[in-house]
Amino acid sequence: MFIRRVSSTDMELVLLISLFLLTANTFGDGTGSDVTRLIVKEDDDAILMCSFGPESIIDKMFDWKKQENKKKEVFFYQNGTHNNNGTSEFKGRVFHFEDQLVFGNASIVITKTQPGDSGNYTCDFPRDSPSRRAHIELTIQKILKDRTSEKIPGASPEPTVTNLNETKDWALLQCEVRGAFPEPKVQWRNRAGNILHAEEPKVTERGGRFYVTLQTTVNRTDHYQCVATQEEINHQTHREIFVHLNGAASKPSITILGETDDGVLVQCSVRGASPEPKVQLKNRSGNTVPAAEPQVTERGGSYDIILQTTVKKTDYYQCVATQEEINHQISTETYVIVPDQQVGASIGFWFSGVVSLAAVQALCFAAASIRRRIKKRSRRYENKNNEPALSLKQPGTEDRNNIEAGSK
Predict the structure, then answer these.
(1) Distances in Å between the alpha carbon of 88 and those of 68, 92, 365?
(2) Rounded to whole angstroms, how far apart are CA atoms 264 and 68?
(3) H or E segment at 140?
(4) Inter-CA distances, 130 with 21, 66, 241, 290, 407, Å
(5) Closest CA to 281 of 255, 247, 250, 248
(6) Do the Cβ atoms of 136 and 47 come closer than 8 Å?
(7) Which residues is 63 bridged to in the sheet?
(8) Do 267 and 185 contact (CB within 8 A), yes or no?
(9) Cβ atoms within 10 A of the Cβ of 4, count?
(10) 373 versus 392: which is more confidently predicted?
(11) pTM above 0.70, yes or no
(12) How far apart are CA 236 and CA 212, in angstroms?
């Protein structure tokens, strides 16, 4: 007689056990005198072992049945074809190890086991002479889980949770479980699963059904669960509520810590926020600036965040704090000057100013030179003809009259 507990995730162990069975012939002479006992937790997978030697069984027949008042077909294989539907309770849940048939392995696996899977199973090779049979006694251990869908009489319905009162520092929560039998155990838990201190539950009984009210006071932002447990029927159900206490992040602060070899070191700080905010530094285009891991400190359910990064470009920068759980986002903006870039900009401005000034001076010099040349030519003309030089101004009315009179 063998007793073994099998985990649903331990499929490699299955193959190792199969090889052991192939070599050790654990089922003895096949007379049915040996029984393998298997204990599996509900919802896990149960592996039912069957092998009588290392020869291939690809071209053979084997048949798995559950032995009850009326035998139930579980899995049937014959010459490369198989039926893994079985009866309705096993439909789609039973599989064999096809690649192991060549080694004589006729084992099967029942997935997502149910309490009703407990019982005696046989693996038969009816065409072998003498016929061979393996016996497995399977026990499914029930676990605590929500069995509301199973419609078990007296199973606790999902609790009702209420935030009765709240200040900036605390909240009074109430949980109610109604009409359950047997009497449920009711607890308040935080998101980490820790049981919270609570007042003595108020329990009343009417018509064989129990009504339970449980209150607790919480002083931090978190997700809270009211859990109702009925171990006698392996039933557990819960309802969750989110409590937010005075934790919306205030405006972040931005501090210029100083210059580095790469740029300017900027620090962004967010204090006293709950739930924990996501803090980022962004440039004016909205792109996130790469930063070191933030320093996070938690005190009494509130979080202080410090984020540091080096910026390499003169620009406007925003420190952004985001709390998605409460749909809250807030930011602070500042202008950061990277010194090397400012020097370059100043030099460029100075250079352009110098160029502009030089251009103006050159124009003035050219104009003066032209005026000097005109005056020089005028003097030469006057000296040559002993007449006054022609005026450069446009002739007025008097000049025009004189010209017309001379022409007559």
Answers:
(1) 15, 9, 108
(2) 79
(3) strand 132-141
(4) 19, 22, 65, 75, 154
(5) 255
(6) no
(7) 76, 124
(8) no
(9) 13
(10) 373
(11) no
(12) 15
H/E stretch holding 136 reads strand 132-141
Measuring CA to CA, how many Å separate 309 from each of 254, 294, 324, 330? 11, 10, 23, 19
Nearest to 227 by CA among 29, 216, 6: 216
Task: Kindly list the distances between the CA atom of residue 303 and the CA atoms of 128, 261, 358, in Å, as whole numbers in the listed order.
Answer: 72, 32, 61
Give per-residue pLDDT as tens, 72-98: 889 999 988 888 666 678 888 999 999
For residues 238 and 228, the answer to whether their CB atoms sit within 8 Å is yes
CA–CA separation, 371 and 263 (whole Å): 55
pLDDT 10s digits, 126-174: 888 888 899 999 999 999 999 999 999 999 999 999 999 988 789 999 9
Contact 332, 346 (CB under 8 A): no
Tell me the residue type at 329. Answer: Q
Tell me 29's DSSP state.
Answer: T
CA pair distance 342, 368, nearest whole angstrom: 39
